[in-house]
Design goal:
Elements lengths: L2 H9 L4 E6 L3 E6 L2 E7 L2 E5 L2 H9 L4 E2 L8 E4 L7 H17 L3 H6 L3
Helix pairs in contact: 1-3
C-alpha cells in the first residue's frame, strides 16, 4: 500500500480532513478529532478493543506511543500492508471517533 492510497481512502470517509502536524506527519481527523496518523515511521490509528488486543498480541502492530491507553495501534511499514485491510481499519477508526462527537457535530458533518 502506498501513502497516496492511504490518503485517498482516509479522505474519502465522511467529514474527514487532513492536517500536517508534528513535522511532516499527516493527521486525519473527523470533527477535529484524530482517527489516524501517517508519518515517515509508519502509521497509527484508533482501534476497536478486539482489534487492539488481536493485532498487538500477534505482533502485527504495537500499542502506539502516548496513545496506547486510548487503544491506538502503530504499524512500522505501510508498504507491506493489504490495502483492503487498512481501508477496513480506517473505516472502523473513523466510526469510533465520529461516534464520540456531539449529535450536533455529527449532523453538521452529515454523519
Amino acid at each position: 500500500m502506498t501513502p497516496q492510497d492511504f490518503d485517498r481512502i482516509a479522505l474519502a470517509l465522511p467529514g474527514a480532513t487532513m492536517t500536517v502536524q508534528w513535522g511532516a506527519d499527516q493527521v486525519y481527523k473527523v470533527g477535529g478529532k484524530m482517527f489516524a496518523v501517517l508519518g515517515e515511521g509508519g502509521f497509527s490509528f484508533k482501534a476497536s478493543d478486539v482489534a487492539f488486543e488481536v493485532l498487538s498480541e500477534t505482533g502485527r502492530a504495537i500499542p502506539a506511543p502516548y496513545l496506547a491507553r486510548a487503544k491506538w495501534l502503530r504499524f512500522a511499514d505501510l508498504a507491506v500492508q493489504d490495502e483492503a485491510e487498512v481501508a477496513d481499519w480506517l473505516r472502523t477508526a473513523h466510526g469510533l471517533i465520529a461516534a464520540k462527537l456531539t449529535r450536533k457535530a455529527r449532523a453538521e458533518l452529515g454523519l
